[in-house]
Amino acid sequence: MVDINRLGKEYEIYTTVNYIGKGFPIILPRGARIIRILRNFVESELQSKGYKVVRTPSMSNSQIYKIEDRYESGKDKMFVIKNYEEEKSSIVLKPYVPPFHCTIYNENQHSYKELPIKYCETSTVFRNDMDIKGIVKTRQITLSDASIFCEPQKVEESIKEAIKIQQKYINKLDLGVTYCISTWDENEKENYIGTPDEWKNVVQSMKNALSDLNINYTVNKKGRMYGPSIKVKHNNKTFISIQIDFEIVHRFDTKYADNDSTNKYPVYIHYTVVGSYEKLLAMLIERYKGDFPLWLAPVQVVVISENQECEEYANEIRNEISKSGIRVETENTNDNYRSKIKKQQKLNIPYIVTVGKKEVENNTIKLIKGENKKSYNLDELIKEVEECQKQS
Question: Right CATH number for 301-391 from 3.30.460.20, 3.40.50.800, 3.40.50.10170, 3.60.15.10?
Fold first, then answer.
């Protein structure tokens, strides 16, 4: 079994410290850079599909969860940080975003012509779970949240779009996944919110969307009481999902004006593109064991000087490479030359560049690949990295 914590420290991705506490990993510069790369991809893709970026507070009055009617049942997993007048106005660290997105929707009256209305947010949420494990399951979680408010007849189309957005990153990251639709147990209808027709129609829309995309799926009766979902599993564990919530739009009186001028409730769809960035980071550490594809590598090029006299030239090379948008660092520690190379090879840096007296005199660089060394000029290196990045 892969020791994620050991690899996280070994590849300088993240660390844990006893006096900081369990469930609060520190993301190191290289790990933070991976998350930023993924976040930029996700946010750019969502915006290109018409999602509006929003930002909601990390804490709020507990009243928002009482309107949702999930405060009392979920309070044990919330961080309640301050109370006034016997909890009438408790302050809660945000455990999830859907109530806030409903509030944003309600800021304006909406017509059916505007739907689907779509919001996205990179949100930080806090959950007081007891089952904490390294970076896989943390108390502070960064999510790629997305919300869709759509007409009933647009559910299938909206679900299909969400699946395709998720698949783009699943395929890019080369993660093996399986799909499962979680629906209700018809023999216990009294335990669920929503009408039989709503459940039937939405589940059929999910089946149609998956079938149209040639995705195999299973079906179980483990749906939540407020709506069915599509669960995407990696190594038999759910890491992202697409969730329907029949209840929340009624709780927040979230409506739109239909073409006959009557007010109706939209269907609310909530999903995350890559789930928790912390958990995804753990999955990627396990998947690649530090040898990340070039497009995701936190450091693509490292420049090492053979001696102190060459450090200025090494810094000039780093600055020129950086202008091309390539992620580059210099190795300026007090270690000897061979130790520096060995360290960067152990970190799986794709391109290790060295400069010595000869390179300074000839205005060139030396590229190390495995046991081979090759002289390059700077433009050749930049072109090679850019071309390889496009292919990875």
Answer: 3.40.50.800
